[in-house]
What does this fold into?
Amino acid sequence: MPELPEVEVVRAGLAPATSGSVITAVSVFDDRALTRHAAGVADFVARLEGRVFVDAMRRGKFLWLPLDDGDSALIAHLGMSGQMLLRRPDAEAERHERIRLHIEHPQHGELAVVFADQRTFGSLAVDRLVADGPSWIPTQVVHIARDPMDPFFDDAAFAQALRRRGSAVKRVLLDQQVISGVGNIYADESLWAARIHPETPASALSPRAVMRLLAEIRSVLAKALAEGGTSFDAQYVNVNGQAGYFAHSLNAYGRGGQPCPRCGTLIRREAFMNRSSHYCPQCQRRR
It folds into this structure.
């Protein structure tokens, strides 16, 4: 599933092309792409056509484009394989294309924003915006915690949340109500960088270890962003259809049985929550 860096790469690519654009037409080819929009296709189209996108925002794995009415936004969750692509208005249909929005930008002219999704777990919707501290977010995102790249992320509150939880620290990192945007890949990479075993109880981490972990999370995410995210196949791409290359920089995730880049011990892969954990048994000893 796309994690924070992959979604941020998409948001950053959409922003200059969509901000200030008028939505001239909306075509829905598969209503499964509107599972988050309960009012159906006709309502979705009516609430978008003629409106103007004013920005491109993100929290965790959600991204949204606020509309000029001031109280609603087009929200997107990419699911397992969703893509938001920018194309020429007359471009041929993408494989697995579900929705196409025709837009007109005052500088860039006519464009198409295409939502393609092979597995159909992703969805678009028009959602109401509500106040959340200094920002406004869709109602569907209210339960999602701020991510560590958010300027309003509360480091102290994050440390307190870890101290209150006796479950494995990796499980806590994947809890979107504690910290958002950190999925399986970046949890493994951050824990490796911080030399913390993924099964260490979160409450057992010292304040110094928590701050070291948070610093490594930010460092890993920043590097992944700089490299366009992690792409293992053609599904994780930016708005131009280009894959990220952070997969070449992974130290732990997906490297089971290979030498640890730091100490040479073979990286261990273990089952974890219907997924896998990858860690170095030497560098990340469970204490």
